[in-house]
Design brief:
Strand order of the largest sheet: 2-1-3-4
Organism: Eisenbergiella tayi
Family: Belongs to the HyuE racemase family.
CATH architecture of the largest domain: 3-Layer(aba) Sandwich
Pfam family, one: Asp_Glu_race
Protein name: Asp/Glu/Hydantoin racemase
Distance between the termini: 12 Å
Number of domains: 2
Helix content: 40-55%
InterPro entries: Asp/Glu/hydantoin_racemase (IPR015942), Iso_Racemase_Enz_sf (IPR053714)
Length: about 220
């Protein structure tokens, strides 16, 4: 029987990109997407996962497990720590979408800029990078840049051009003082074509995540 995976997504903003990456990198893997836009709205309104969000996430993770998938991917950085709390209660392994990106950032430099467009992402993203650095035994400095409102412009207005204008200047500023720039949300990959002249590496989670998925599935045999 072929391999299968499930993305648990709090927004559909990056679902098409994830599907395209899966077709490119793991074309023989069956992909399920469990999407509930109400979750990110609840998270943003409360600056983090509420008990309601945690309960719904557990339901979706159990649903994914009942599908018999080989791996579950948590798509949303803002609820990454909630995913950590759920993992021990599942038999199916869980991968956070930004895990591979955090590891690559720590490998690439000591001074790491994190660009976020919603406040609820800032804490989990920074703590994940700090945790990865501690496990690797590396000292780092995290430089946080929050571009407030940009994510809502993208999700609620569907205005990628305005979103890009809001974020691009912050990326350029961060690149002057850091070794690597991390785009905290997968939705920010719409910026990548505009970042070719940035003098330091700019990391985005979706491609790195799907490449890690391929590695993990191959390791399962």
């Amino acid at each position: 029987m072929g391999k299968s995976i499930a993305f648990v997504e709090t927004s559909g903003v990056s679902s098409d990109e994830l599907k395209a990456l899966c077709r490119e990198i793991i074309p023989d893997v069956k992909v399920y997407q469990l999407i509930d836009d109400s979750l990110i709205q609840e998270v943003n309104a409360n600056c983090g996962p509420t008990p309601f969000v945690r309960r719904r996430m557990m339901e979706y993770y159990r649903n994914a497990q009942e599908l018999g998938v080989d791996l579950i991917i948590n798509q949303c950085s803002s609820v990454g720590e909630a995913a950590d709390a759920i993992m021990p209660f599942l038999d199916t392994p869980v991968l956070k979408i930004d895990q591979a990106m955090a590891e690559r950032a720590v490998e690439l430099g000591r001074k790491i800029a994190v660009i976020a467009t919603v406040e609820s992402t800032t804490g989990p993203s920074v703590r994940l990078i700090e945790s990865v650095a501690a496990k690797m035994g590396k000292e780092i400095e995290v430089d946080l840049h929050l571009v407030e409102g940009a994510m809502m412009v993208l999700i609620e207005q569907g205005d990628a051009e305005k979103h890009n204008r809001m974020v691009l200047g912050e990326v350029q500023k961060a690149a002057k003082d850091n070794d690597v720039v991390v785009l905290a949300q997968g939705s920010m990959t719409v910026l990548l074509p505009l970042l070719k002249d940035i003098p330091v590496p700019v990391l985005s989670s979706p491609r790195l995540c799907v490449e890690r998925v391929k590695e993990l599935l191959e390791a399962q045999g």
